[in-house]
Design brief:
- With 425 residues, the protein is of the alpha/beta class.
- The protein has helices at residues 26-41, 66-72, 91-104, 128-139, 143-151, 175-185, 190-209, 235-239, 274-279, 307-319, 336-347, 349-354, 376-379, 386-401; strands at residues 5-12, 16-17, 51-55, 82-85, 110-117, 263-273, 286-295, 328-331, 404-412, 416-424.
- Helix 1 (26-41) crosses helix 2 (66-72) and helix 4 packs antiparallel against helix 5 (143-151).
- The model has no long low-confidence stretch (mean pLDDT 96).
Amino acid sequence: MTKRAAILGGVRIPFCRNNTAYADVGNFGMAVKTLGSLVERYDLHGVELGEVAFGAVIKLSSDWNLAREAVLSSGLAPTTPGFTTARACGTSLDNVALIASKIATGQIEVGIAGGSDTTSDVPIVYSRAMQQRLLAVNRAKDAGDKLKAAVSGFSLGELKPSFPGVAEPRTGMSMGDHCELMAREWKITRQEQDELALASHLKAAAAYERGFFKDLVVPFRGLDRDGFLRPDSTLDKLAVLKPAFDKTSGQGTLTAGNSTGLSDGASAVLIASEDWAAKRGLKPQAFLTYSQVAAVDFVHGEGLLMAPTVAVPRMLDMAGLTLQDFDYYEIHEAFAAQVLCTLRAWEDADYCKHRLGRDQPLGKIDPAKLNVNGSSLALGHPFAATGSRIVATLAKLLEEKGSGRGLISICTAGGMGVTAILERP
């Protein structure tokens, strides 16, 4: 018999632009602050949890055991296990599903899922040639051989450092380059993208003003709200921005205003069985009921960020639901164009028939139910932190409503998608 996995709540630090407030903090520092805040919020000092699943996409080699190390500094019992994961932008939603699955099958009663990412404190490594040279020096048996290995054939070019890339290894193209192709395929205009971006900022600003984020965002490093938020943004301001990716063809539509910026931040969610929650006097906000992943063949022509269009209908079939059976839709805004491509694909009869194998299109969603408190364009997108940020947001929305159902859709690098359904009976 399976147990229901309850979302009890979540916290995050404000997301900020890279090389600003968190430039010297790194994933470990942000993870400790976020986990520690969750421990404070739910009085978990010294409590042994079943598992902590915490991920990061861009991390130092010393952070190979990030989850466990963060646990040891969080205030949780040191006997709490932790494991570190990565599935690009879907990392922490994956972690929520992993923890929920362990609860559902009785392996654990309670766990934390989350993620942290920095594009400020990035791993900078030597060139491949220098790496091989240093390894050869290390293998050499005596001083003479070490000296020979160190200097033989050496060139100054070997000292050139290598920074993490944002290009897809299989194509050499950035995510933005791929999304430009998607926007052209689906005929997404610059105006449509800017309108969606503006709506995200205005909705997020309104949510802050009414206090929605008060218990979800904990102040850190002098910030008490996200560094990307532009409540004074307008369509006119967005319209003057130049293309950020396709800068030469005259057809580029993705700009810094309708694309997420490089971000630093962390988030985490507490998940438990109903019995564990009841014993501690905690009430579930919502339950994770379904989750699904999918991948597309972007190397041979499919849109890099279109995998959620495949994952969602599979998940709907599992749940016996239609696309319209939701009170809220949380679609991660990697780019405004990517959100619009996803929605257009679900409305397209040809795509739904030939790619998804469905007799009818999935149809339209009510735009009033989409990202009602803003999303990544306004709040920021630390890769591994976005999924748990969205889960905490949606769970609170469902709690406020009293009952209902919400859909989560996240596209990721590598042509994958991670999706989930939260419900509150």
